Amino acid sequence: MDKSLFRIKVVPFLGSFIIFVMATVVGDVVLHHFDLVWIGRYLGIPGTFLILLSLFYSLRKRKVIRSGNPRTLLGLHEWLTSLGALMVLVHAGIHFNAILPWLALVAMFINVISGMVGRYLLDRSRRHLSAMKEKYRLHGMTKDAAEMELFWDSVTFELMAKWRAVHFPISFAFAALALGHIVTVFLFWEWK
Ligand code: HEM
To answer: Hey, where are the domains in the chain?
Structure first.
């Protein structure tokens, strides 16, 4: 692999993964250092909320909602899930009380990694398809319409479809485990 391919293909993927892990460790260390571990206990709530909010992209894609630029919403999906997952990881910290929350955490972590792989594949298919833009323009489409068409082409590209067969079930496994964790937390909550 030559230098530029390494820069385009490997650096963004590894870079985002390393930043993600480092941010988690730094967040946890800071909370422990300043004796603020109690903040971490509550970070799970906004974290989950951000992840749920990010799924607006899925609603837009599946035409449950009709407004909103899909490209912007996908960008938001990537940022909100990363930030939400970071909060959830700091919330989990290094405390081990029960198996279910850790299973949920592992599922979320795999979900994040698969998301990063998806973003990489999407960039790849976008590069492949950018040549199509010219074709659409030649067919008399406006610039905006051609860009929208290209966006939908890139997310339906073959490799993306295969990847989705992984990212989607992992999301459901994560959702089920997280829900189990949330329900048990409320069952054992001490209302005092
Ligand atoms: C808690 C973590 C995550 C969950 C629960 C999650 C969930 C989902 C779901 C359900 C979809 C399918 C949308 C649909 O086809 O309706 C999706 C698509 C996608 N996600 Fe994630 N995701 C997570 C993290 C991430 C991260 C961290 C990234 C990238 C940095 C990412 C990038 C993508 C991409 C590129 C798509 C594909 C767009 C498409 O197929 O249309 N995801 N995600």
So the answer is: 1-95, 97-192
